Every structure is written in structure tokens, then in C-alpha cells.
Amino acid sequence: MxxxxxxxxxxxxxxxxxxxxxxxxxxxxxxxAVLGGLAFRTIHNIGGEGGAKSVIETLRDPRAxxxxxxxxxxxxxxxxxxxxxxxxxxxxxxxxxxxxxRTDSIVVASLxxxxxxxxxxxxxxxxxxxxxxxxxGKINAVYRNHGRESFLKTVTNLLGVEPDxxxxxKSDAMGKVVDTLGGVEVETLDAMEYVDAHxxxxxxxxxxxxxxxxxxxxxxxxxxEADIYERDEKGMPIYLGYKDRAGxxxxxxxxxxxxxxxxxxxxxxxxxxxxxxxxxxxxxxxxNLFQLDHLVNVTLEQLETNLDRMQIFAIAALFRTxxxxxxxxxxxxxxxxxxxxxxxxxxxxxxxxxxxxxxxKGDETAANHLTVVSVENATEIRGAARRVGDLLKQExxxxxxxxxxxxxxxxxxxxPTPPSGAESTRIIYVKxxxxxxxxxxxxxxxxxxxxxxxxPDHAGVExxxxxxxxxxxxxxxxxxxxxxxLVTER
Length: 490
Prior knowledge:
The strands form 7 sheets. Strands 13-6-1-2-3-14 form a 6-stranded mixed β-sheet, with helices on both faces. The protein folds into 2 domains: 1-360, LCP protein (Aminopeptidase), CATH 3.40.630; 371-483, 2-Layer Sandwich (Alpha-Beta Plaits), CATH 3.30.70. It is built from 16 helices and 21 strands. The model is unreliable at 1-17, 32-41, 84-88, 91-99, 407-419 and 486-490 (pLDDT under 50). Helix 1 (15-35) runs antiparallel to helix 10 (292-301) and helix 1 crosses helix 11. The longest helix has 21 residues, at 15-35. Helix content is 33%, strand content 22%. The protein has 490 residues and is α/β, with parallel strands linked by helices.
């Protein structure tokens, strides 16, 4: 997953982050290619109506494409769901544009134009909001019911930050770009199978490394659970002819359900991160470098935005050297409730403020409150984990776990040391963007070797619960002795 995973009841996946990365990845590749001296024709085509001259001017001074008095710009990015008619049937490709379309992912991208840093704040699609008409509902339905302007105002009112720009991304964007790239290589922990003919989703991927096409990539990114229903020849669930007490139709369930290690929202988020890296690698491969003008055009065709073509390219030029792992991402935190038979996420106001202050306003002091930490004692010395955890809590860190290191969590870190025999303390962070927080923890507790996680991402798999943390502190004897107490429990 490799991102700040602020805890909601169901830890909803936010596809907006992956879609932002998709755009930045391809356009940054184009910027690098132009700087590397690709053919004049390619540069001219990337420039659109402005031609090669507009591209060259943008590369020389990309900062000039944005107001001089603004060092940071905020962009609302939303992924559009498929369009549906009044009967709930999905429109075919190319029809029903903008009608019945929900925003299935919402993220605010905050770009520091001077420091060249990127942070992304995701909004759970089930977030409870009060609309301009005073009605209570979920944020993902505002675009469908009231249009884009109302949706943008709703996000502004929710966060207290007015966006500078917006970018809407069509539902099939990722699949089209993957096909244009000629497929990408991914790896699954287990086989995935799921069919939803109503949504046009057909997933059947084996375990292991494989090259996926556009349709398979969409399934790879969207899979969340094993298929539990018996299906007819058209792939539709078999209706049993009656409804439950809530009025929902009842379908025939499979007698034997084959579950996968890839189930759950945490695993879906991890796969989305993996897919973006695979796309970045493929986009900069030799074959694709020479069709970047086509890749850029395909990408831009999937957008509705008030950014002009050269502003988008300026963003790519400004952030072309940014390491994808340095992009800080987070999701607004809250708790789930059923209201009027509908599931909604009620945001935590204090956590929301901290997230906005950190990710959208650049206040690093707010970061501690939203950094999830686990403290694991890998020695026989009692009491150390709780003492260290309490210290980090006092400094504002979100300490989600304090206790003994298990064999599973030790295996995740890649350590050959048994859980009760570690000599040295290790502080492991999941992304480069958390290095600063990890260094701060080392200063607070008086030591520890900093490491970036190098093992496969098993987030969401049973036995690897500690992967939900952004930083793991695994105490060795060097620091456990310092924090030892007479407490009989660790």
C-alpha cells in the first residue's frame, strides 16, 4: 500500500490517488523524453495547437504557467463511475456522458510548485455531507444529482479549502492507457475470480507474475472479494424470485466459495500502487518512449478539466524528477454508520483538520497525528513496547498497536531474528515520504536503525496486520532495557 492509511471503519479504497499518479506518470515521462531530445514531430504533436514552440517555452519556464503569487495549487481529482439510466442499466461506451454518473473516487492533489512536492488527500466516497439544498446524503452522489459545480462547492465546504483547478477522469481511463502501453506486468498473491455482468466486470487472473491488458488491469485494480453467487450464461446472478425484509432481491449463492488472499480493501489499495509502478516502468521503456505523443493524447482524452494543455504539461515538467514513493497520500478518517438503511462515513472533525493542515496546507507539525505507528517488542524484556508507545502518543503519533512482535510481523520486516531475540531496534517505514517521521521517532526514543520496507506488500492478508501501520518500531535489547519496567505485561 505504501501510503498513509487513515482509519475508517472499512478503510475504503480511493482510486483517485492511483488516477492522479496515472496522469503524472505519463506526462512526466513525456517531459523527460522531450528533454532527452526526441524527434521534433513528437514534440510538435505533444504541443497540440501550440506546436513545438509551446512545449519548449513550457519546459524552459513551467512555473510561469501558474500565478506567481501562489506557491501551492490544489486540484480536485475525481474518477467518474459508469453512467446508468433510471432502471440501473449501464450505458454502452460513448453514450450517456455525464448522466447518472457518480464520483467513485475523490482526491485533492496539493502541489507545492516551489518545493516540488506532491500530497494527495482522498475523501471516502461514502462520506456524509449536507448538500446545498440542505439534504443529507453521500458525497459520491452529488455530481450525479446536481452536476459538477455543486460537487466542487461541496468538496470546498467539506474541507474549507477552495480548489484552484479540477480534473475529472473517465471510468475506463486506466484500461485504455494500459492497452496503449501494450500491457503491463503485475504479480498477484493468489488467484482472483469475480463476475459482475451488470457493471461489465469480468475478473479471472491466476496467481503469480503476468502481463495484463487494459480490461484485466481494471479487474486487477477493482477486485475486492470472491464471487459468492451462481451465475447464468450471461454472467448475471441467478434471482431466486423473492426479496429480503429490506426489499433487496435475493440471489442464489454458491455452495462452495473459493476465497483469495487478494480480498479486502487494503489488498486492493496495494495492487493499485503496484499497477501504477508497472505503468510508469512500461511508459518509459524504449518502445513507448517513441509514441509518447500518442500516449499523452490518449491520456488527455480521458479528462474533463479547466487546466489547459500546457498547464498540464507544466505540472509534468515541474515534477518530472519527483520519486513516486515520495508522494504522500492519505484518506480522511471517520467512522461508519447506517442511516436510513444507507451506510455513511461520519468524518472526525479534528482528524479532518489535521489532514487538511498537513496535506493541503503543508503544515508538517500536523503529520504526527495522522501517522499510524505500531510498536513491537522483539525481546524478552517486559514493559518496553507500552512505554515507547505511550511516549509516541504524547508526541501526537497515532499508535495503533503496542505488544509482542509475532513471527508473522517479524517475517514481514525481512528480519531473520526470532521475535524474542533481537539485539538492535529497527524503525521501518513503508514509503520514502515517511522517512522524516521515522527519523523523528528515532530522535524521540533515543535510537534505532531506519529502514525502508523491502518485502512484498501483504497488506490485508491474515497474519500481516502490522502492515496497516505507516511505521513499525521493532524494539531490540538496546532500547528495551532503557524502557523496561516492573510491569508484568508487555
